[in-house]
Amino acid sequence: MAQKLVVNLDKCIKAGECYYNHPKLFKVRKDGFPDVLNANPGEAALIEEAEGAIAVCPSQAILWVEA
Ligand code: SF4
Q1: Residue 5: CB within 6 Å of ligand 1?
Q2: Distance, CA 47 to ligand 1 centroid (Å)?
């Protein structure tokens, strides 16, 4: 089943690790929260980046959900 990359804004603390380190996947909004730019990264390299973002998010706010 396909998966989609999402950010739980209720958990996000705006630390910025995701959008500073993974600009192909996230961008910062005016309010400091991230937007997901590419929720379905098909390339292996981007999927690996997404896994990296999930691993370093300090509030465990980034996750895969069923698309
Ligand atoms: S790394 Fe996590 S806490 Fe920081 S802005 Fe991204 S989602 Fe929010």
Answers
A1: no
A2: 17
**Of residues 64, 60, 65, the one with CA closest to residue 50:** 64
Per residue in 34-47, pLDDT tens? 999 999 998 999 99
Beta-bridge partners for 34 = 28
Topology of domain 3-66, per CATH?
Alpha-Beta Plaits (3.30.70)
| Rounded distance from Cα 10 to ligand 1 centre (Å) | 11
By percentage, how much of the chain surpasses pLDDT 90?
Answer: 93
Specify the DSSP element, H or E, that contains 56.
helix 44-56
59 within ligand 1 shell (Cβ under 6 A): yes
- pLDDT, position 2: 85
Neighbouring CB atoms inside 10 A of 36's CB total 19
